[in-house]
Amino acid sequence: MTERIVLAYSGGLDTSVAIGWIQEATGAEVVAMAVDVGQGGEALDTIRQRALDCGAVEAYVADARDEFANEYCMPGLKANTLYMGAYPNVSALSRPVIAKHLVAAAKQFGASTVSHGCTGKGNDQVRFEVAITSLAPELKTIAPVRDLALTREAAIEYAERNELPIVTTKNNPFSIDQNVWGRAVETGFLEDIWNGPTKDVYDYTNDPAFPPPADELIITFEKGIPVAIDGNAVTPLEAIMQLNERAGRQGIGRIDIVEDRLVGIKSREVYEAPGAMTLIAAHQELENITLEREQARFKRTVDQRWTELVYDGQWFSELKGSLDAFIDDTQEHVSGDIRMILHGGRATVTGRRSENTLYDFNLATYDEGQSFDQSAARGFIDIYGLSSKQATARNQRLGYSH
Ligand code: ARG
Questions:
Q1: Which residues contact 37 (CB under 8 A, 6 or more apart)?
Q2: Ligand 1 centre from 164 Cα, in Å?
Q3: pLDDT at residue 169 tops 60
Q4: How many CB atoms lie within 10 A of CB 339?
Q5: Do 160 and 183 share a domain, yes or no?
Q6: Which pTM value belongs to this model?
Q7: Structural domain harbouring 342
Q8: How far apart are CA 158 and CA 14, in angstroms?
């Protein structure tokens, strides 16, 4: 039986050309698999047909939208995932679910090798391959763009020579990766980091400088997960999609940063994640009233470590699993409502309520009837400041500057 290779297929130029390249280089048959993580764009049937037209022996589409939202985006939300304080790990969250489907397909089609279209300069090759090796150590991986040195020019030339049914995008200068959690745009004139993004870079968001009237909404969370918007029940996928729509209209969630890739390169990225950024802002504020102070402080460290592990392709690692357990435990009481105003590029929290609130009006108020014993503060400060006071006295006695 001829060997089979399962290729993670996007429908774009590189992976379309990869079908033929892999077959020529290895003599194996290529099974193309497209994973729907809510990237939108072309109909998946069109993509499937294109894979077959490009020479795949089988092509199929896995609908992973709910799985992606429930099992990847929601853990990201619980961790308030913002790499370098800014990037909600859009591409990083999608790689492990795609890898999972690749591995399942390899088993189903009896393939010993899987393949992806990443270059050798990015994070995504690492994420795919570390995920694959964690799930199925026996599988081999081939990355034609990297391993067979498939350049963009060569790919276009190959597609034209073989009359592959693809829209050759000689003029589209950007490398784009998108899913329901957001959209990443890089390369082209954005590589000059002084150049501002032009209008055509954006797709999920409108220009925040000319917003429609303000949009007020209430997001209800249960244990850290959005369960209703304005009182209407939603699944995680629906929540993200609805907020992409409403926050996107207001130009919320545009991000422009130079980020530290795992491979050591600093790269300029423009992201749009209207739903993700709105949800994270709401979730963080709900945590502010429901998490105990020390737990909240420690969780910020855990969130950041979790985020770096996920960015670095360690989704299936032991440490990430242990941090998940901690984060899940903290979400026990993160239930309640957050009211927000979406307007002109900002998602602003204006109200919060929860049965589990730790905010105590009677403790916080400066009005009559407050229950906090201010006279106790004096003694607390005397003891709390004692060790610093002692150190300063010693330094003064001996003439040290500190
Ligand atoms: N730099 C981002 C990351 O590593 C996005 C990469 C997405 N790929 C792309 N072709 N734009 O998560």
A1: 64, 65, 68, 94, 97, 98, 179, 180
A2: 26
A3: no
A4: 17
A5: no
A6: 0.96
A7: 175-291+333-353
A8: 10
